[in-house]
Amino acid sequence: MENRLRKSVAARLSRYLQVASQAAKEGMTRISSHQISLYTGVNATQVRRDLSSFGRFGKRGSGYEIEILCERIRDILGARSSRSVVIVGAGRIGEALVRSGLFAEQGIEISTVFDSDPAKIGRELGALTVRPVAELAEQVKRHGAVAGVIAVPAQAAQGVADELVRAGVGAIFNYSEALLDVPEGVSVQTLNPAVELLSALCVQTG
Q: How many angstroms separate the CA atoms of 164 and 102, rounded?
């Protein structure tokens, strides 16, 4: 993703792409800003403003052609070329992420999954084999991984974050409840479904 793209804009564009991609799977060929708004919670005016800032995407009153919209957003987000990420934690969350096909659709390749539990190491998850955390730095370098996903219990998360930073990843997606301490220049996004649900409920009842 280009440095000029603000994090908030990139986050919204990613949501638009998710909705448009799913609409295409369901046989739709066009989608309106109002429809995107319904599925993302982003005001339709903001949707149009975000998209128009990168050029013309559709015709007023007729919505956006989904195939073109997806192509343009992928270009903006830099999702045309595959980017490698690693997942640390082969439990239920880690396994669900590995088996999900959504990452490949957005130009993201899960290159390796790690765990510290001997009972999980060597286990097959889809096309991947769970590797020991001791190999993390080696695998990050081998695959050129740019980000790491933390899917371990909160008490182990900081140690995993430290390992990812030492391995050279620049972005961390944290599925634990831990508040991570990382050096300046490393971005952290904590992903908590309960917090997202609370936010949605507040908007609904506000």
A: 23
Q: Which residues contact 55 (CB under 8 A, 6 or more apart)?
A: 72
Cross-strand partners of 90: none
Q: Quick: pLDDT tens for 61-119.
A: 678 999 999 989 888 887 656 689 999 999 999 999 998 876 776 778 899 999 999 99
Nearest one of 160, 110, 155, 100 to 136, comparing CA atoms: 160
pLDDT band of residue 178 (cuts 50, 70, 90) is very high
For residue 201, CA distances in Å to 40, 74, 198 come to 14, 30, 5
Element of type H or E holding 171? strand 171-174
For 157, counting Cβ atoms within 10 Å of its Cβ (0-12 exposed, 13-18 middle, 19+ buried), the class is: buried
The reported pLDDT for the residue numbered 112 is: 96
Q: How many CB atoms lie within 10 A of CB 60?
A: 7
CATH, domain 83-193, list 3.90.650.10, 3.40.50.720, 3.30.300.30, 3.40.190.10 = 3.40.50.720
